Amino acid sequence: MPNDDIDVIAPNLNRRLSGVTATVISLVPLQARKVGITATGVALPDGLPFTPLWKLPFLKRRLRVWHARRNNEMLLGILLRSLGLMRLKLVFTSSSPRKRGGLTNWMTSKMDAIVATTPVNATVMPGTPVLIPHGVNTEVFAPAPSDIFGTGDQKLIGCFGRVRHMKGAHHFVDAMCELLPDHPDYTAIIMGRITPDNAAYAEELKQRIATADLTDRILFKDELPLTEMPRAYNALSLYVAPSLLEGFGLTPLEALSCAVPVVATDVGAFRDFVSQDCGEIVPKDDGGALAASIRTMLARDLPAMGTAGRTRVQAEFGLEREADALVALYRHLLGQT
């Protein structure tokens, strides 16, 4: 993309795969059809419109939008503008349901626009945020045959994300230890990164599984690249999101887009898109309720529920909606509307 055509800069300043990184990678190609946008930073795939960080101050001087999604990205945008290195309108999107501390509030006060992704998120954001929910690319996350986990004829129940306490993996393991003996045709998949600080937690989970004599039916799998995630969801019959805390929470939405029904805790935006025709919502941090809900779901018509879930995602939560709303915000800030 010629430098003169860049209207919007989308930084990604975290090397770890996260929901924020996935959002940038998914949104930028769609937005590039409608506005001059470039990504910058680290851990971004080839093929994405991209400008190295070091080149940004040397772009032709004109007004641009800097869309931050993390504190360090806010700070860099503030510095670039305050030091006179770039003319910027600053945007910050956050999905966190928690109130922010002093430094974050100070940085947020310097933003020209604030975007919240859920009504709950909006109530803890300073100022007057614009509500723009996340979406999912329903063409990429679409039903297709998959045996990516190599489990043959076994039906799969999946739980994806970093293996740590706040993701509720212990409740998922306990539920599977209770339910799988009664459902010999099912295997459970726990897929996600185990960081060194969570190694003891993961080992405890594996010991629980071994005690239940289910090591061959509750399987730990390494984190997959983003490009392989649709295949991961499509291998499942049921997806479980047992989180104790989420900002928005994309994984249940991605599962539903692949026509996989969902059991999820009542956190983040899960309640907004998991309805009774495509899944169940249970109280957070309630292992008994989670196990009971999964048991109920296994007795229902899971393929029909998955179809209903995909229909809802296509109608209400397509990524195109999010992209269009953000592009409209960018154009407003740039005086193009």
From TrEMBL:
InterPro entries listed in its UniProt record: Glyco_trans_1
Transmembrane annotation, as ranges: none
Pfam hit, one: Glycos_transf_1
Tagged with keyword Glycosyltransferase: yes
Keyword Transferase among record annotations: yes
GO function terms (MF aspect): glycosyltransferase activity
CDD domains per record: GT4_PimA-like (cd03801)
Keywords, alphabetical: Glycosyltransferase, Transferase
Residue ranges of every copy of the Glycosyl transferase family domain listed in the record: 152-300
Protein family: Belongs to the glycosyltransferase group 1 family. Glycosyltransferase 4 subfamily.
Protein name per UniProt: Mannosyltransferase
Protein source organism: Shimia gijangensis
Highest classification ranks of the organism: Bacteria, Pseudomonadati, Pseudomonadota, Alphaproteobacteria, Rhodobacterales
